[in-house]
Specification:
The protein is an alpha/beta fold. The protein contains eleven helices and 18 strands.
Length: about 375
């Protein structure tokens, strides 16, 4: 394939300093391929990086870390293989693939326990400070992107690149549901109905949740939830969150609550809305201090977190999307060319006032 010398890329240099510029097209190294990016989603974590917060470190390590000086944002990526690095002959130029956006070290205690998502030394496409000896940390806000050959997965022809950008979030949703140990017939409440929340709810339905409710402060995502077959979609403020959950569960409390918002109020109110033996899983976290009482955990109630996803969750996500059991197209509200990154990102920064759920960039 004819590959140009330079490409457009959205590079984050630091706090609120995101620039669309022309940079050299990277060469794939050994055991890598070069992807011609077909589409890349703007994730909520990208917004946090823009504001100087390292979402990966907070969710995985439990503390903030500086981000790299020159990082191409974007980890929700799908595209076409355009060049093979050495030892990558199992793939062919022209193959359509989705990208699993991180690779762990393989030798730390967590990798050896098959928990690569908890590896402190992992490299992550689109963010994180682990990249060394590169001019630009690779990411999907670009026309071309290198990726490890063992972290790409074939896409069915009927799954578009735009839809496939949400495989990353779907893998996160699968892992969060697995962390909750949801069993058939249990009630599931999802706090926050952005892309991740809508994916979590769909996975819960697929795995046999007895009744599912999503909560949000905005009408738009609740209407889309209804389109996706989620019948109980209620508008709330953080003060009446507990009441809505109690009403939904006939005052029993929810068996599983997945909190995709992660503020102090949503965490404490969700914890106090659990049924006995209920599980609260935080997909988003905060550095703010919160106050809980030991009695909030009485009755074997559990609060835990969900960090990213396991490797196996990505091909599982492809299966769910390809089968139609989970849909992503209804909540992709905006699609922009990469050249319009500035306009797209401004919408994402103020999603509440722009009826934004998910924005996708197309180079």
């Amino acid at each position: 394939m004819n590959i140009p010398k330079t490409m457009k890329a959205g590079v984050l240099y630091g706090y609120k300093n995101l620039t669309l510029q022309e940079i050299p097209v990277p060469e794939p190294k050994e055991n890598e391929i070069l992807l011609k990016v077909g589409a890349c989603g703007i994730c909520g974590s990208d917004i946090r990086y823009y504001y100087g917060e390292n979402a990966w470190a907070l969710h995985t390590l439990g503390f903030n870390e500086p981000t790299p000086g020159a990082a191409i944002l974007g980890h929700e990526v799908a595209g076409t293989i355009t060049q093979l690095g050495t030892h990558s002959s199992e793939w062919q130029e022209g193959d359509r693939v989705g990208a699993l956006a991180f690779k762990s070290c393989g030798v730390c205690e967590f990798c050896l326990r098959n928990l690569p998502n908890l590896c402190a030394f992992q490299h992550h496409i689109g963010h994180d400070g682990r990249w060394k000896e590169v001019d630009y940390a690779p990411g999907g806000y670009s026309e071309y992107m290198p990726i490890w050959k063992d972290k790409i997965f074939s896409l069915p022809e009927h799954v578009s690149f735009i839809e496939a950008t949400q495989l990353d979030g779907l893998a996160v949703a699968i892992h969060a549901i697995n962390r909750s140990r949801l069993t058939i017939g249990e009630s599931l409440v999802v706090v926050g109905s952005g892309a991740i929340g809508l994916l979590v709810a769909q996975v819960g339905i697929t795995l046999g949740a007895g009744k599912v409710m999503v909560l949000d402060t905005r009408e738009k995502p609740l209407n889309i939830a209804n389109q996706l077959g989620i019948r109980e979609a209620r508008k709330i403020n953080q003060d009446n969150l507990k009441k809505e959950i109690q009403d939904f569960t006939n005052q029993k409390g929810a068996d599983v609550i997945i909190d995709t918002v992660g503020t102090g109020k949503t965490i404490t109110k969700s914890l106090r809305s659990l049924n006995r033996f209920g599980r609260l899983v935080l997909v988003a976290t905060t550095e703010d201090e919160i106050t809980i009482k030991p009695t909030d955990l009485a009755g074997e109630r559990i609060i835990t977190t969900s960090a990213n996803n396991l490797y196996r969750n990505y091909p599982q996500a492809i299966s769910l999307l390809a089968s139609g059991k989970v849909q992503t197209k209804p909540f992709i509200t905006h699609v922009f060319p990469l050249e319009s990154l500035g306009e797209a990102f401004q919408l994402a920064l103020d999603k509440e006032n722009n009826d934004v759920i998910k924005i996708v960039l197309v180079p």
